[in-house]
Q: What sequence folds into this?
């Protein structure tokens, strides 16, 4: 069986850098999907101390006006991004496919009830490039 190089057929972009998050909303950097026909959102959690950490995804046609993605319409309904509110969610990775049609994505992490918080990061992996190799 031949193994194919995935590196040159995708683009991974960090939206939320790794950080310990406490109360508030962290809005990730804008990710431009131009030139790609598919994407997956990946949220990674590290050490957990307390609080509820809820990831969500926003989309935009122009990178300025944002609307929340809807499960089953813009995000794959077979998966889900779940809130982490106990140590059971520590050191875990969540993924969901983007099936919407807008060009820009950003990941948002909303944290409540945290004193020390939890570590998290979020990425968008774009695939199905219109022109490959990508690197």
A:
């Amino acid at each position: 069986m031949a193994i194919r190089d995935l590196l040159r057929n995708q683009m991974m972009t960090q939206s939320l850098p790794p950080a310990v998050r406490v109360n508030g909303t962290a809005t990730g950097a804008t990710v431009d999907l131009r030139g790609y026909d598919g994407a997956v959102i990946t949220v990674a959690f590290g050490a957990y101390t307390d609080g509820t950490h809820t990831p969500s995804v926003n989309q935009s046609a122009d990178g300025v006006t944002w609307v929340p993605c809807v499960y089953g319409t813009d995000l794959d309904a077979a998966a889900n991004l779940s809130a982490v509110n106990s140590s059971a969610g520590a050191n875990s990775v969540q993924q969901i496919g983007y099936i919407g049609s807008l060009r820009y994505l950003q990941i948002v992490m909303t944290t409540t009830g945290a004193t020390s918080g939890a570590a998290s990061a979020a990425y968008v992996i774009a695939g199905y490039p219109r022109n490959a190799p990508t690197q």
